[in-house]
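Handout, page 2. Input:
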Amino acid sequence: MRYLQRFFNPSNQSYFLFGPRGTGKSTWLQHYYPEALSINLLKPDVLRTYLAYPERLEEVVKGSKAKTIIIDEIQKAPQLLTIVHSLIEEKCGWQFILTGSSARKLKRSGVDLLAGRAVVRHLHPFMAGELQQEFSLTHALQHGLVPLIVNSDAIADTLKAYINLYLQEEVKAEGLVRNIGNFSRFLEVVSFSHGAILNLTNIARECAVSRKIIEGYIDVLQDLLLGFLLPVFTKRAQRKVVAHPKFYYFDVGVYKSLRLTGIFDDEREINGPGLEGLVIQHLRAWNDYQDTPYKLYYWRTVHGVEVDFILYGSAGLYAIEVKNASVIHPKDLTGLKNFSEDYPEAILILLYRGKERLQKHNIICIPVEQFLLELHPGAGLPT
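Output:
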């Protein structure tokens, strides 16, 4: 596949660039900074050199004519951040771009060491608007939008290998969990919670481990950028709402690969959360790529009335419901109508699998494929 222009907006100062493996960080950086000095810590010999002698970084930087220095997978040698910090303080015009697919080792020491000298940016899987005419909703729902997978000639095999990559290289090699077998089982079990309220007790029971271990596994998923939690919207709440977050894998293809199916599984139970996941991964990317980000939530009352996604920020309030159906029924509007009663300022959007753009009362109904293709950072939500 040809090189695709990404919506990602880089910083003019030094920055961290986080994103799961395979999201195209290295490819984008090579294209955008062709003259940069690049240090790839994924190469064993390079990593060994810098772990043994971190001060070498200063020698290499000062010996190079390049003013942009890229350090790939910085979490593998977080001690280099002390050198980076020192070099930034010299104010010699160097820009450091530090990529990472895991924030775990940087949480306690790494990011804090730079003390605000570097901003944080995120690169996500492809957005539909980046793929344009190459985007297929059906294909995306089945295989996801991770660039490494999208560009593969053997998508199914690459997707399976992708999961193993994280288990072997990130989880096992870094010693993030004691029992890799239990963690593998957890990855499958938690896929049933994709798009659902997280019930740690039930997951622990299914995995036959303690709730505390499951809490640790969830942290590992978030640190590896493989999953995220969506909190409940409680601003100016007029009804009692639930307290627990919802869980999503970062990409629908990863979810579909881990979610085992059988003869007793209803496809709607799988594809509904899959479509939700595809929408929220787009919203997260759109939100991260623009300058005035919203906070993302969901809304659910204790009586079960729910809206899939809430976007809240200084620019407005949006409520988005996603339906994996080509026909809109009156009951599909219930959550949005209830939310509108409590938050009349909200712009209400229903996304569905139909072909027509509709207006039902104060709810804008948009074909989901159209919505995703029109979702561009800086352009506002399609309405």
